[in-house]
Structures are given as C-alpha cells and as structure tokens.
Amino acid sequence: MRRHENEFCIEKMAQMLNVSRSGYYEFLLKGEPTRATENKKLKKRIRDIYEKSRKVYGSPRIHQELKREGEKVSRKRVARLMKEEGLQAKMRKKWTRTTTVDKALEANPNYLNQNFRVDEPNQVWVSDITYVRTEEGWLYLAVVMDLFSRKIVGLNMGDRLETELVSQALRQGLTHRRVMNELMHHSDRGCQYASREFQELAAKHGIKLSMSSKGNCYDNAVAESFFHTLKTEHTNFHRYRIREEAKSSIFEYIEVFYNRQRLHSTTGYLSPEEFENQWINRAKGMA
Fold first, then answer.
1. Helix or strand or coil: residue 43?
2. How far is CA 52 from CA 55, 80, 232, 257, 258, in A?
3. What is the Cβ-side half-sphere exposure of residue 237, based on CA atoms within 13 angstroms?
4. How are beta strands 124-134 and 137-146 bridged, if at all?
5. 94: three-class secondary structure by DSSP
6. Residue 54 carries which DSSP code?
7. What does the longest C-alpha to C-alpha distance in the chain come to?
8. I need a labelling partner for 210 at 20 to 30 A (CA). Which of 2, 24, 62, 275 fits?
9. Nearest residue to 229 via CA among 215, 243, 250
10. Quick one: DSSP state of residue 90?
11. What's 162-186 look like in SS3?
C-alpha cells in the first residue's frame, strides 16, 4: 500500500486487501514488524562473526558464537539468514598425505589405539607432517598437538623433509609446556618419527612413543584432521610466492586464529586456549 499510495486511494486499497485504514497508519507509525527488524540486526551480527572467522564458519559455529553472546536464536534461523545473505563456509578441497614409511626402521607399538579422549593437558600429544605449495618449492610443516584441548603446542617448517623437522617441533612443545608426568607422543609410522635421532630425543625426555598401525589412517585421525582444516580453511586459498611468506601466513593462522579464536566442536565450541584455561581454573578451585 505504501508503495502505491500515490497511484491509488488508501481507502480503496484497504478495501481490496481487507485491512483497516487505521491499521495501515499504525503500521506506518511503528515501522517494520519486530521480526523483520530483529532479522536485520541479526544478519549484521552474523556477517560480523562470519568476517571475523575469516569466512570459515558455517551456521553451527556462528550459532554457538551468538549463544556465547547471549543471543537466543535457533540454529535453523541462523542457517536461513546466512542463506539469504549468501554466506557459507569456505569450500572444502581435497588434500594428499605425504608421509613416507621406511620399512627398515622399527616402529613403536600403537599404545594410543584411537583413544582420543584425554582428561588433562600434556598427557598425549599427536604429531604429523604435511606440505604446502609455494612458487619457490614445497614448504614442509610438522605440528605437535595436545590431544586434550586440540591446541598446537609445537610447530616447525622447513624446505627439507628430514628428522630435524619433527624433532624441532617436539622441542618447541617441550619448551612451551610444563610436562610433569609421563607423556605419550603418537604419530604415524613415517621414517622421521621412526629414526634413531627422534627415538633418542624422546627417550631423553622420558616420552613414551606410540605409532599408528600399519596402513590404518584412522589411528592418527586427529592430527590429519587438523591438516585438513588448515588446508581447506586457509592455505588452499593463498598463492605463496616464497616459503617465508607461507611460513608467516601459517604461523599467524595457527597461533592467532586456530589456537585462540576458532571454536572447536570437540571442546564444546571453545577455542583450545579457552578450553585449557577453563580446566586450569577448575583445577585451581579444587585444590
């Protein structure tokens, strides 16, 4: 009616549409319906969260972020509003594992045995290697993750796929964390982890080494899942000229976004840092 009020008589339109003139004028005074106004505000907040997440959050994580802010809204409504705004998580792309196995080296038993539930920090760390393409050549990345919080506690990058790559990642984790009890380190059966150098480094720090069963990719699924996240949310959307550019980009994603901001479904939609801090505060309260 408002759109055509200069063309037709308000009274005639009211009769045709079976509404009252007073109701129409009341609508003009009040403005848009409350639901529409709420949706406008909600869409803006959804877009803000989406942009802050580097466009990697879908409706489940955006819904959780809104709940953390005290917003009472259903996940279906969030999904619908995102669709209306054309917002969706970045496309998932395939990636290829690169670990090589040296059959001449002796592998450690699979002590972890897919028991991915851990009650405290620094009980079980999992590790893996991947590579990232640059115009200068491959950049190899090794990470060490605390299975308790899914936090990356050690990482190392280089242009060679050697034992030192994984050894330095482990050393970094040991430098940054206070490991009080026996620590288990789980990896696949790659030659870097099975090497004498790495075995001696672990023994020096009293670390119990565990390795995936032969040919079973599920035994190290958590570490592999991290690389899938890193690639499909970040590195696959960048074209790196040199390795140093890729190093800075990956370091920033892991330390700034993944460890401290990205909500993780396994930790009840808390970031790894938040999840660990909650555990520390509970432990202090029980002491």
1. helix
2. 7, 20, 17, 10, 12
3. 15
4. antiparallel
5. coil
6. T
7. 91
8. 275
9. 250
10. P
11. CHHHHHHHHHHHHHHCCCCCCEEEE
Among residues 65, 134, 112, which one has the least CA distance to residue 218? 112
Are 105 and 147 in contact by the 8 Å Cβ rule? The answer is no
Euclidean distance between CA atoms 31 and 38, whole angstroms? 13
The pLDDT confidence band at residue 5, using thresholds 50, 70 and 90, is confident
For range 222-234, the mean pLDDT? 95
Q: What is the DSSP string of 1-25?
A: --TTTTTS-HHHHHHHHT--HHHHH
Q: SS3 for 113?
A: coil
**Residue 264 to residue 17: CA distance in whole angstroms:** 51
The three-class DSSP label of residue 237 is helix
Q: Which amino acid is at 251?
A: F
Per the CB < 8 A criterion, the answer to whether 178 and 146 are in contact is no
> What's the whole-model pTM score?
0.78
Scanning the structure block, which residue is given the tokens 């955006």? 62
Cα–Cα–Cα angle for 13, 19, 22, nearest 5°? 95
- The C-alpha atoms of residue 234 and residue 241 are separated, in whole angstroms, by 16
- Four-CA torsion 204, 205, 206, 207, nearest 10 degrees: -110
The predicted-structure confidence for 31-84, as pLDDT tens digits, reads as follows 656 778 888 999 999 999 999 998 989 999 999 999 989 998 999 999 999 999
SS3 152: strand
**Strands in the chain per DSSP E:** 124-134, 137-146, 151-158, 183-187, 207-211
**And the tokens for 262?**
């990205």
pLDDT bin (cut points 50, 70, 90) of residue 208 is very high
